[in-house]
Amino acid sequence: MTNRIALVLALLILAALAIDLLVYGDRHLIFLGKKFLQFLEWIAFWR
């Protein structure tokens, strides 16, 4: 994974988190955290 790809992924995750906080408050953070961990496992599989 290049630095550019890692930066884009980090920005997308932070943007999704910021939008979720603005729209729903902090009610969905646990759901997003679980999905993020599943996403990390999926990326690790393809490494």
| Termini Cα gap | 8 Å
Q: What is the makeup of the main sheet?
A: none
Contiguous runs where pLDDT drops below 50 for at least 5 residues: none
Our count of domains comes out at: 1
Walk me through what this model shows.
Helices cover 85% and strands 0% of the residues. The model has no long low-confidence stretch (mean pLDDT 87). The protein has helices at residues 3-24, 29-46. The chain has one domain (3-46). The protein has 47 residues and is an all-alpha fold.
How would you briefly describe this protein structure?
By secondary structure, the protein is mainly α.
Give the topology.
Layout: H1 3-24, H2 29-46
Which terms summarize this structure?
single chain, 47 residues, 85% helix
